[in-house]
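Internal QA ticket QA-208
Title: Verify multi-chain structure generation after dependency bump
Assignee: T.L.

Test input:
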Amino acid sequence: MKATISPERLTLPIGTRDHIQGLIKAPMILLEYGDYECPFCGQAHPVLKQIQQALGKKLCFAYRHFPLTQVHPHSEHAAEAAEAAEAQGSFWEMHDLLFENQEALEDEYLASYATALELDVSRVVEEVLSGAHTARVREDFLSGIKSGLNGTPTFFMNGMRYDGPRDARTMIATLEELYV
Amino acid sequence: MNHEAKYNQLYPKGRPATLRPGTKAPEFCLKTTPDQSVSLIDFQGQPIILAFYPADWSPVCGDQMALYNEILPEFQKLGAELLGISVDGVWCHAAFAKDRKLHFPLLSDFEPKGAMARNYGVYRDGDGVTERALFVIDGDGVIRWSYVSPIGINPGAGGILVALEDLQKREEPHKEEVTA
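Actual output:
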């Protein structure tokens, strides 16, 4: 396990500001810093679902935005669309749709996902275009920078950075070792 | 003659160590474009970040510079200017900066090759490239923070931000005295 955990630590602990699945008091906390347009995050998405299924209530999964907007031109609006969905109680549904449709993240597609989720589409569009959630996404991004992030996806397990292989078996084993 | 013996013959006193905090930053004047140069003295009164990296186009460098491009507004909020430096020529830098849409200057430590890197103690003789090294220099031209990363690892920007924030804290009480 030692080789997969780096000395980097999370500087902004998981709290009420965060998007989480599971209980914040769960013994294992897995945080992902991700970018909806990053192909490696896309590959990790189904792996994370497997991990969540395997660990059940023992795991709390959290997600923060880390869009590299100069490299991924649609990543910022995609992240803000997820926040706009959060404002209507549907963050995780939008989150899944974005990762499942990484090749289609232009604004018109973002609006179509809001339609598919039966959200107030004009409100989502208005919030994304007016930058209503820009500050929130930037706050996530900067918290990542301060925790030494250099790319995506980056994972923290109980506040410690995980640098190991991104397969369910190794990640589950590492989480379980941290838990014991 | 083996590599080490050759090295010792060329540099009988050994390679100069990486310059440490508290050291006066060596002056430099390097080209950023075919007809423009920048010097340390241009930044009097303003903190600068020097980011030495081994080469344009290599994957990690690309990610590192892309990441810094993303954090530029934060560096600017802290009053600092970012300069990237490698031994690549100006035309190579121009193509690289255009491709990656970089919004900060790249300095060409090209002729005599690696002269600036040698002065800062971050030239890799055997490889003919610079270390992946970071320096934060204050407005008086004194190095306040330095870090040499393993060459294949993107060091992120957490250390730079902490160093710049420390600089600002150092200067703020002084400002209050002046206005009082």
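Spot checks passed. The helical segments of chain B are 3-10, 59-77, 90-100, 115-119, 158-179.
Status: verified.
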